[in-house]
Design brief:
heterodimer; A: alpha+beta; Sufe protein. Chain: A; Arc Repressor Mutant, subunit A; GMP Synthetase, Chain A, domain 3; 3 domains; three-stranded antiparallel beta sheet; 11 helices; elongated; B: alpha/beta; Aspartate Aminotransferase, domain 1; Aspartate Aminotransferase, domain 2; seven-stranded mixed beta sheet; about 40% helix
Chain lengths: ~280, ~400
């Protein structure tokens, strides 16, 4: 049970400004179904760049819904300039605080606002250009360093609470520690980091690429022999697939998976993938 | 504080109400009979006699002998005791078989054996299919020369799916491998007769069957090698040190007696209530689906996913009507990822985040089922209205 303030409960149970504005001045889409929360923010500006209306649609928990609702309430009446200065701390404060594990919900609110403003101005978001550190939730180093600086974070656990990075498989925890040390001691500039290393793939990107490779390169071959294949799960580098049709009774199914499917996926998606059969 | 009578409690796989009959039998041992069962005087000795009776009642429910029952502090302690004992008994064997859907008590233990024991282990985690069931052929292939122990839950806490542990224990036994089952969800809900099985270790938790919290049982088959986990006094015939949790042991004994008496009700009336709830929800709410095998399942559990909405938000709306249940969504798990059980089953993310587990008990009534069936459609519809992924024409 989370300890939510009355304000969070009010905005969760009776949210303000639910919906989508037709022909909005700006739209911000952040999060995904896979990550467990997502927010679509739309707003309308008048000719003086004052936000006259804002609406949201949110998939997520109580604090995600409350953060979205309070955000729309806050920005209506603001100029675009004022709105661009709203921080996640402002959103959380306005709700009377959020449980520390839920701070990422307020970060999502700010990110959606930034995305909507960038959309209106026709700009690209800086965050997307960084190196993906947390593959499970698709969090880049730029987002992490920004959270460390803006919210004055001092531990890896806090980074997870604010950005979700490290909250999945945990493989990036060492890297998070490094980033924390680097950015608190040396104050590295965000620009130098962007594009420094080859971006890694998020699980969602991996799933999409694997599905694509299965459909175009692998299924046609199997179907010729009366078989088929389905993707069951992706867990880090482990890809679980299930063989269907004639393949299920084929004595060579293990060879098919290792020699054919795994080889193809390594070639087309990522060379560290390990394909396992799940029956 | 919320009152017992104010809530519609459908979270019995999390914990259960202490049966009034259980509490009644416990109270004298908290008020008056505080003697230590190990003492030489009669004041303590009479407590020892009561523990003996409780042990017999637990053994009767399981189809076991009283000396095969070891009282512990909880299900987790029982699980750790069994697995560590098996590994110490066969130090030359370093392979452990378990499943991808175990409770954290077994999951986190088996995944950290190297660090905890200081020895390298090989771990096989058996996959489940889309309905949450195991493949016995895969299991047979995994059993190896160096397998020390198999630990497979009797019934899954999230989906209620029942695993063929009797058959699996037989297969292990044939190869001289020890078999442990975490049966905290199964005991009291489905008939168990350990005499007719080859199961070596079985874990119980008192508060899952209308007993008190803080009491567990480890069944250890006669003849199975055993090494204690808590080393200390001679309590439990040297198999578990520490002064007995007397009142809770007495309570658990009574709870086991009640469970045996209620077994038919659980498998008839409660099962019918569960089925009514399940059919009602699936038919009145579009884009909802059952997680877990339709029939190989505990009579009290229904795990249902409502697509495009998130579990915590659903639960908190249910809470407004005092309806208690659980979710496998990320936001309720304390971690940021949805339930490992639903993920292992390949439940798509659209559905895993919106899963709700309803788990009933003999205290639930038909009126409560009707109440939940009346409230759920508008809760789901309201949240979908707000979801960016929901389209009315889906």
């Amino acid at each position: 049970m989370w300890e939510y303030t009355d304000k969070v409960q009010q905005h969760f149970l009776f949210p303000k400004n639910v919906g989508e504005i037709e022909n909005p001045s700006g739209t911000g889409n952040v999060g995904s179904l896979a990550c467990g929360d997502a927010l679509k923010l739309t707003f309308k500006l008048d000719d003086k760049e004052v936000i006259t209306d804002a609406k949201f649609k949110t998939f997520g928990c109580a604090s995600a819904i409350a953060s979205s609702s309070v955000l729309t309430e806050m920005i209506i009446g603001m100029t675009l300039e004022e709105a661009s200065k709203v921080t996640n701390e402002d959103i959380a404060d306005r709700l009377g605080g959020l449980p520390k594990e839920k701070m990422h919900c307020s970060v999502m609110g700010r990110e959606a606002l930034e995305a909507a403003i960038a959309d209106y101005r026709g700009l690209k978001l800086p965050m997307a250009e960084g190196e993906v550190v947390c593959e499970c939730f698709g969090v880049t180093d730029i987002e992490i360093i920004r959270a460390i600086k803006e919210s004055n974070l001092h531990s890896v656990e806090e980074i997870t609470n604010f950005t979700k990075a490290g909250g999945g498989c945990g493989k990036c925890l060492d890297r998070l520690r490094e980033i924390l040390v680097e950015s608190t001691h040396q104050g590295i500039s965000l620009k130098n980091l962007a594009g420094k290393t080859k971006p890694r793939m998020t699980t969602l990107q991996k799933i999409k690429k694997i599905e694509d490779a299965l459909e175009r390169e692998i299924r046609p071959g199997l179907r010729k022999d009366g078989g088929d294949i389905e993707l069951v799960d992706v867990d880090g580098d482990f890809v679980f697939v299930s063989l269907r049709g004639a393949c299920t009774s084929c004595v060579k199914s293990q060879t098919t998976i290792k020699e054919y499917v795994e080889k193809k996926l390594r070639e087309l998606v990522l060379d560290t993938l390990i394909v396992e059969e799940s029956k | 504080m919320m009152n017992l009578n104010d809530v519609v409690y459908m979270d019995n796989n999390a914990t259960t109400r202490i049966a009034p009959e259980v509490l009644e039998q416990m109270l004298p041992y908290l008020h008056d009979y505080y003697g230590n069962p190990s003492s030489m005087h009669r004041f303590g000795g009479q407590v020892g006699a009561a523990i003996t009776q409780a042990r017999e009642k637990v053994a009767t429910l399981l189809g076991a002998e009283p000396e095969e029952i070891v009282f512990t502090s909880c299900g987790t302690e029982s699980d750790s005791t069994a697995i560590f004992s098996a590994l110490q008994s066969f130090p030359e064997k370093r392979h452990v078989i378990t499943t991808r859907v175990e409770h954290p008590a077994v999951k986190n233990l088996s995944e950290n054996l190297d660090r905890l024991t200081g020895h390298k282990h090989r771990l096989t985690r058996l996959m489940v299919d889309a309905e949450g069931c195991l493949d016995l052929q895969k299991y047979e292939e995994a059993l190896a020369e160096d397998t020390a122990v198999v630990s497979v839950m009797w019934a899954n806490n999230e989906t209620g799916v029942i695993f063929p542990v009797v058959e699996m224990a037989r297969m292990a036994k044939e190869r001289g491998i020890l078999f442990h089952t975490d049966a905290v969800q199964a005991v009291g809900k489905i008939p168990i007769n350990l005499k007719e099985t080859d199961i070596d270790f079985l874990s119980i938790s008192g508060h899952k069957l209308h007993g008190p919290k803080g009491i567990g049982v480890l069944y250890v088959r006669r003849g199975t090698p055993f090494m204690p986990f808590l080393v200390g006094g001679h309590q439990e015939r040297g198999r578990r040190g520490g002064t007995e949790n007397v009142a809770s042991i007495i309570g658990l004994g009574r709870a086991c007696e009640l469970a045996a008496a209620n077994m038919a009700d659980e498998n008839n009336r409660v099962k019918k209530l569960r089925d009514k709830l399940e059919h009602g929800l699936l038919s009145s709410i579009p884009h909802s689906m059952l997680n877990g095998h339709k029939t190989d399942r505990l009579p009290n559990t229904a795990n249902i996913s409502f697509e495009y909405v998130e579990g915590e938000a659903i639960l908190l709306h249910m809470d407004q009507y005092n309806i208690c249940a659980s979710s496998g969504s990320a936001c309720t798990s304390g971690s940021l990822e949805p339930s490992h059980v639903l993920r292992a089953m390949g439940v798509p993310f659209t559905a895993a985040h919106g899963s709700i587990r309803y788990s009933l008990s003999v205290y639930n009534t038909e009126e409560e089922i009707d109440f939940v069936l009346e409230k759920m459609p508008s809760i789901i519809a309201g949240l979908r209205e707000m979801s960016p992924f929901w389209k009315a024409d889906l």
